[in-house]
Amino acid sequence: MHNLVAAVFVEPVAREQYFLREDWPLHITLLRFDLPETPRMLERCAEQLAEAARPALGARLEIAEHAWFGRQENLLVSLVKPDPALQLLHERLCGVVLENQGRIASVRFTGPG
Question: Most CB contacts within 10 A, which of 3, 62, 94, 111?
Fold first, then answer.
């Protein structure tokens, strides 16, 4: 299984840019998930995720309070205020992953969480 993240970058990034796990450019994590390790599955899922995200392009979001994240809760993040368009996008992405035999990695922060 491939461990993947659907994210929206707030800072510009180049296509196929690489960075370390602890050194991500400013972004909003939409969903952490795993997919079976087949190239065709990854390609198909990427196309479906892009299609699901298209209606949310240009949505305006507000930043809320800060919180500690990570396995050891040592990563300070800024939370995004709940927004119906963002929640719908998240739910669409979850649907795409599950339709492709994927597994949601962070169930505590998935759906209404």
Answer: 94
DSSP bridge partners of 93: none
pTM of the predicted model as reported, rounded to 2 decimal places: 0.81
Asked if residues 85 and 56 have their Cβ atoms less than 8 Å apart, the reply is: yes
Q: List pLDDT tens digits, range 64-111.
A: 899 998 778 888 888 888 888 888 999 999 999 999 888 998 777 777
For tokens 């994590």, name the residue.
29
Residues in contact with 22: Cβ distance below 8 Å, sequence separation at least 6, in sequence order: none
Rg of the chain, C-alpha, whole Å: 14
